[in-house]
Amino acid sequence: MKTITPSPGDIKRAWYVVDAEGLPLGRMSSQIAAILRGKNKPYYVPNIDTGDYVVVINADKVKVTGNKMLSKIYEEYSGYPGGLKQIPIATVLAKHPERIVQHAVKGMLPKNTLGKDMLKKLKVYAGPEHPHTAQNPETLTLKYS
């Protein structure tokens, strides 16, 4: 039996819509990352991007479990003295809720150019509307929700 490596013409990309309302952030993000990588397909290869497109709606209604709403802090460091920015998750959720989902999924993808290409297939929107209706996305219900 031979191992079959898919060529770019063999890869069929589907579009999925995930409603994030009431879903736990980490469990949702891990399943989205697996779909972006293509692990749900029979011809998954780790060195080729075989994943699908995922549209996440209602990112402002994602659930953060435990005490994370008070204790989780996103940090950015510019490299200069005094250049550390610490932003609590409650502030990010109020201003830019789509960044929370993008940040969580980005942490679960490979840290290379392949991971950057996979992240481009993730579309996150704060409200229930999205401009990707022309692609006829399927509604995806996630496990462990």
**Assembly context of the chains:** single chain
CATH superfamily of the domain at 15-64 and 95-139: Ribosomal protein L13
| Main beta-sheet annotation | 4 strands, parallel
Number of helices: 5
Strand fraction equals 15-25%
Unreliable parts: none
| CA-based shape | globular
CATH topology of the domain at 15-64 and 95-139: Ribosomal Protein L13p, Chain: A
Average pLDDT: 94
Distance between the termini: 38 Å
Give the class from helix and strand content and strand pairing. alpha/beta
Q: Order of strands across the biggest sheet?
A: 5-2-1-6
Helix/strand order, N-terminal first: EHEHEEHHHEE
Describe the structure.
This protein has five helices and six strands. The strands form two sheets. The protein has a four-stranded parallel β-sheet, covered by helices on one side. It has a domain at 15-64 and 95-139: Alpha-Beta Complex (Ribosomal Protein L13p, Chain: A), CATH 3.90.1180. The chain starts with 14 loop residues before the first strand and ends in a 6-residue tail after the last strand. The radius of gyration is 17 Å and the shape is globular. The mean pLDDT is 94. Helix 1 packs across helix 4 and helix 3 (89-95) packs across helix 4 (97-106). 21% of the residues are buried. The protein is of the alpha/beta class. A hairpin with a 6-residue loop joins strand 3 and strand 4.
Question: What is the gist of this entry?
Answer:
The chain is an alpha/beta fold and 145 residues long. The chain has helices at residues 25-37, 68-71, 89-95, 97-106, 113-119; strands at 15-19, 53-57, 73-77, 84-88, 122-124, 138-139.
